[in-house]
Design brief:
The complex is a heterodimer. Chain A is mainly alpha-helical. Chain A has one domain. In chain A, about 80% of the residues lie in helices and about 0% in strands. Chain A contains eight helices and no strands. Chain B is mainly α. Chain B folds into two domains: about 30 residues; about 130 residues. Chain B has seven helices and no strands. In chain B, α4 runs antiparallel to α5 and α5 packs parallel to α7. The longest helix of chain B is centred in the middle third of the chain and has 36 residues. The chains are: A mainly alpha, B mainly alpha. At the A-B interface, α4, α5, α6 and α8 of A face α1, α2, α5, α6 and α7 of B.
Chain lengths: ~260, ~180
């Protein structure tokens, strides 16, 4: 087995138990109550990945059965990832009533625009390559990942431009999904165009990109879930003296003008 | 294939953006960052004057066309500077408000939440106003943004003083 192939297999094997660790951590810290969709997602990733590893090596499983299971796991994973992003969105903006309506409206509009862009891309660059069936599958994956990546970037950019704070756990969840989805998007974008009928060096490299980004995403979750929870702002709520002085001057100036 | 390459490039750039966001977030604790940043004074009246349509009309009527355009551009540049400073102050106060929201005293929490709302409103107004000011620089005669930024800034100023008094006089420890 070539080195690249071995590498992506190891990434695949490593991310599966690590998903289990993430799941266990969610239950031990009772954080699962706050992020039920993410908990389902982590559980699904662990179970789906374990099932695929078993099916990959079980002699009784035919290639068709394996690919059916692969497609099913990927489709549900994609749907759950979208739900997790919505859960992250809710957590970010729940502390800001002034932004509830605006953020919901922007989130919906961004989703619609991204869906249109992704469909446009699928129309402009349809599946090609010798392995037509898998190329079509990767085109669908690319379309979905474009929407997911766009939504995540929207969340990061919108919240950081307003100066909103994220809880570290929630930030870690979003970051992990972001890393995972961006790697998959890059790999699927190429595979949708060059997918061969028989595996070769390129497919191994692209599998390495997909599996290593999945592993990086799961490692990100693990780090953030095990790290000490850092809230938006932990220190004392006392206003620093220099801040108060500056604003007293501001108020005096305003009153003077009135 | 071109679209695929573009998507790969976008994915790589987005990944770099996420890495930058992560390192920027973890290197400095937010409160330390807040204390080190300086609040900058904004002269609200001067800002109102800069975006006052009557003032603009007066200058248009009094000055030769070329002089008016040059002066108006400089006035708009100054207005951009004012709004950017006000938005920067709002970001700083947003963090202070978030810290104060963890207080055990309900009135401090209420004041902090109002401060957060005002700070967010101000940043939203600033985001809407800045493109209009830049547009007015390029296309003279474009309508200037309303004075909502100034009003929002005044409300935020009152709220931060109120919060300051509550945290200092009340002396209620954090939750």
């Amino acid at each position: 087995m070539p080195l690249v192939s071995q590498l992506w297999h190891w990434c695949w094997f490593a991310s599966t138990p690590l998903c289990g660790v993430v799941l266990a951590r969610l239950f031990v810290t009772r954080f699962y109550k706050e992020v039920p969709v993410f908990t389902t997602f982590a559980g699904w990733l662990a179970a789906g990945s374990a099932a695929l590893i078993y099916m990959n090596y079980a002699p009784s499983i035919t290639p068709d059965q394996y690919y059916f299971a692969f497609a099913l796991v990927s489709a549900v994973t994609g749907g759950l990832a979208f739900a997790v992003i919505h859960e992250v969105f809710r957590h970010i903006f729940e502390g800001y009533p002034a932004l509830t309506q605006l953020s919901t409206r922007l989130f919906r509009r961004t989703t619609i625009v991204l869906i249109c862009i992704a469909i446009g891309l699928a129309w402009l660059a349809p599946a090609s390559g010798a392995g037509q069936l898998m190329a079509t599958f990767y085109t669908l994956g690319r379309t979905f990942d474009t929407v997911l990546c766009g939504l995540l970037l929207f969340l990061f950019i919108f919240s950081s431009s307003l100066g909103l704070s994220w809880r570290s756990n929630i930030f870690g969840i979003a970051l992990g999904i972001g890393v995972m989805t961006l790697g998959t998007l890059a790999a699927y974008a190429i595979r949708s165009q060059v997918e061969p009928t028989v595996r070769n060096g390129i497919t191994d490299v692209l599998d390495l990109v997909t599996e290593s980004s999945t592993l990086a995403g799961v490692v990100t979750w693990t780090i953030y879930l095990f790290a000490h929870e850092r809230g938006p702002s932990r220190p004392s709520p006392d206003l620093p003296a220099h801040v108060l002085e500056t604003w007293t001057q501001e108020l005096q100036r305003l009153l003077h003008h009135q | 294939m071109t679209i695929s390459i573009i998507l790969v490039l976008i994915a790589c750039l987005s990944l770099l953006f996420l890495v930058r966001l992560t390192t920027g977030r973890s290197l400095t604790p937010r409160w330390q960052e807040t204390s080190e940043q300086q609040l900058r004074i904004v002269d609200v009246e001067a800002f109102r004057n800069l975006i006052d349509p009557a003032e603009e009309e007066f200058l248009r009527a009094s000055l030769p066309r070329d002089d008016f355009r040059q002066i108006q551009r400089e006035r708009l540049r100054a207005a951009v500077e004012y709004i950017s400073t006000a938005a920067g102050n709002a970001a700083l106060l947003l963090r202070i408000g978030e810290a104060a929201r963890r207080s055990a005293d309900p009135s401090t929490v209420a004041a902090a939440e109002k401060l957060i709302d005002h700070a967010i409103q101000l940043r939203l107004y600033a985001f809407r106003a800045l493109p209009r000011l830049y547009l007015a620089m390029v296309l003279p005669g474009t309508s200037l943004p309303p004075a909502r930024v100034a009003e929002s800034y005044e409300q935020m100023t009152r709220q931060v003083i109120l919060l300051g008094l509550r945290t200092r006089i009340g002396g209620v420890p954090a939750a």
